[in-house]
Amino acid sequence: MKDTDPRGAPASVTSRRYEGLADLSPLLAFASACTAARSPLSASWHPGDIVWALHASPDRPQPNRFWLGAQGVEAQAWLYDDGEVWLETLPHAERLVPEAVSWAEAEWCARCANAASAALRVRAYASDARRIAALEALGYRRAEQAGVNFAMSLEGELPQAQAPSGVTVRDSVGVDPALRAGAHRAAWDHLDHLGIDAQSRFSTEAYLSLTTLPVYDPSLDMLAVAPDGAFIASCIAWADDESGVGLFEPVGVAAPWRGQRLARLVMLEALRRLQARGLTEARVGTAAFNHPAIAAYLACGFQPADESWWWVKGGR
After folding, report:
1. Residue-wise pLDDT tens digits, 5-62
2. Could you tell me what percentage of the chain is helix, strand and coil, using 3-state DSSP and rounding each to the nearest 5?
3. Which long-range contacts (CB under 8 A, 24 or more apart) does 22-25 make?
4. What pLDDT sits at residue 112?
5. End-to-end alpha-carbon separation of the chain, Å?
6. What are the backbone angles phi and psi of residue 286, rounded to the nearest 5°?
7. pTM of the model
8. Average pLDDT score over residue span 279-285
9. Alpha carbon distance 279, 273 (integer Å)
């Protein structure tokens, strides 16, 4: 498509999907710019979100499309297998929303034989009136709630955490990759309490791939260690120096150890490290139905910051 820059001169915007590692740096810059420019509103992607989404396959094409202008990536839409669309633009590029949604609609119809009955769902934040207006102009209406987001200032004194007897906290510097991957699966293989029957695919190879990517810092990848040496809780904090915002994704506790505030324990250590790096804010989000996670984040000192909702065409 063609557009016009602020000085009135023609400017070209092109779009394509993520093809491999050469596209990672532009997407990270885009996520960082969105996090900074949209603040205090939430952005769909922090650089840590991008790396976590790609950690197992950063060298392979992805089900997304991004729009490139003269200054870099201006918008991105990511279409998941269940018809969920995560969409973001830089504030000056909100004009690209209709084209991004149109791409997602066409892609979903091509991908899904029963697309007519399986509605495409576009995620938007409740505080983003401009995005909501754009979706409504395209015929979309708000459906069910998707998630809740929390934020916490890092400019004051942080709460203290008390570890259960014999439990310690460490980072992932020099960690055994197989044990670190196992710590993730120990939490995410067991989600029956949320009504989810699923198994994590986070393998040793996936963890090793993650460690090679930008933004990941093993000193911000925290582990709770049981008296017998087992890793029983974990969280990854992602630091974005450009925006001053740190993000948590994911946070998990092994099933036998839940209810002992271990998520709070590892997160508070990561928060102290983010603060020591000079970051000014931390953020975390979860599904609206994940009440244990919500309680853990509130116990850390996070405050509710935003809600995300699904928007469907012709929905209620």
Report:
1. 433 333 689 999 999 999 999 999 999 999 999 999 999 999 999 999 999 999 999 9
2. 35, 30, 35
3. 23/66, 24/50, 24/54, 24/58, 24/213, 24/214, 25/214
4. 80
5. 32
6. -160, 170
7. 0.93
8. 98
9. 9
